[in-house]
Amino acid sequence: MINWDKINKRISVKKVILPLMMVILLLMILAWGKIVYKHIQKGIFAGKMEEIIFKNENPTFSIEKIYLCSSANAIDNTEEKNLDNLGIYQYTDIAIYINNNKEDELTDKNTIKELYLDDIELDLDYNIGKPSLVYTNLLKIGSKNELEEMVKNSKNIQKERIDFNILSTNEQNDEASYEEPTFYADCSNPLSLKYINEISTEYIVKKNSSAVLDGSILSKVGIKTEDINAKIKFRVNIVNNKNEYYSNYVNFRIPLFDIEKGTSIKTKTTVGSEYNFFTI
């Protein structure tokens, strides 16, 4: 006699075990596939990193030198010009020299097609003032008149990005307006910028007292240099004539410790891989 109960039990067990085994097998395949995928991705990543390292072993562009000229100025807001209402501005002119390894010859690789600054961050230690970073004409570095014109025309407004016009021919040079951001394709001129901190208005110089309109004006009206210490950070982006992209962050504190003597000039010749432009 056929025992139908046993047969039904065997069939029920098969119905449970077979799908369970299929699920386990599928999970094993997925797990193995994930391991293989990660291994492949690691290989691809390692290969890309090796390629990036190789590209950056001999950098095409690097920052060669940074020049800083710091001072201050006071703009008299009164019609009588009696020093009863002064707007105080601390400023630092910045010139950044880029080395493009052009000693041998100029090529599409070491000449510039596009250049711009972004990721601009201006951090004041004590939030005293209103800082801005703008382009300045290289021929007017250290000029108080240019600062006054910028303030008058509200040009010292912080921008998120500064785009430079690239000059590659003598004709372009003859027609260029250096009042707008301008840079030579062969890197023969520096990036010229002006940091401006509009500290405050309504400062007063005491009567029967004289004042020189330079860094010494700060102590004259009671402003301590340590109270206006600032750090500048921005990214320099370059696209060469081979359409290769390079970038590097410029990050430094403005040295103001001796600005009260009048004008402070600092030059830093850069050494180290942190000043090399990175490409991917």
List keywords for this structure.
35% strand, 280 residues, 4 helices, 2 domains
Describe the structure.
By secondary structure, this protein is of the alpha+beta class. It has two domains: 1-55; 62-279, no CATH class. Helix content is 25%, strand content 35%. The protein is built from four helices and twelve strands, in the order H-E-E-E-E-H-E-E-H-E-E-H-E-E-E-E. The strands form three sheets. A five-stranded antiparallel β-sheet has the order 4-8-2-1-11. Strands 5-3-9-10-12 form a five-stranded antiparallel β-sheet, with no helix packed on it. Strands 6-7 form a two-stranded parallel sheet. The longest helix has 52 residues, at 4-55. The chain starts with a helix and ends with a strand. The model is unreliable at 44-52 (pLDDT under 50).
